[in-house]
């Protein structure tokens, strides 16, 4: 049986592992939540968290905005099991086991009104470009006019459109990484997954993950590019699109629903 304490310990370890790739992760969370608070237009916003993982962003958002409702969407059974065990009693938090690559996912959210905001962190670059474009088009149908989309992710410049800037951006990120991790990285992604999937308390979720082929396959280089996301959002009907916060290629991209 997966207890709350065991799940929280795994999530704490997950957060440390993620911070090993993104030392500014907590700052990016804070700025994203700043934008929701400033832009949602009400103290009780309805927010959709796309690719929520174990709920790290959703819980932080509800700590700041306790009247909000956050529908946290993911398809990884292990991460959902951890989130539900650790945060299942958090008021306003609803986990939804949905695959964003399956058309019609938004209709299964059970919304009683258009969402005020949608958020995501370090998740959507895992989608292939056709799936990403479809997700943005479907997302636009459930966001209210003027609603926010906020995506925190590592999104690089297009080397074809701006080759010199893209090269300099890569160099700046490499220098920064060497300085930050001069003493070595903490536990990495693979080591965390090897450890968590060996926990007997998660055996059922691990088996379901294997059945769903949640094997860590990445998307495509295109979905790691800023220009792909900007183009897809514009095609989906979002108006103003821009970067609210940035450290190297680590960005908070914001788009406003038309």
UniProtKB/TrEMBL annotation:
GO BP: methylation
Keyword 4Fe-4S listed: no
CDD domains: AdoMet_MTases
Highest taxon listed in the record's lineage: Bacteria
The keyword Transferase is assigned to this record: yes
Family matches, as Pfam families: Methyltransf_25 (PF13649)
Domain Methyltransferase: 47-147
GO molecular function, one term: methyltransferase activity
Keywords attached to this entry: Methyltransferase, Transferase
Protein name from the UniProt record: Methyltransferase type 11
Organism the protein comes from: Thermobispora bispora (strain ATCC 19993 / DSM 43833 / CBS 139.67 / JCM 10125 / KCTC 9307 / NBRC 14880 / R51)
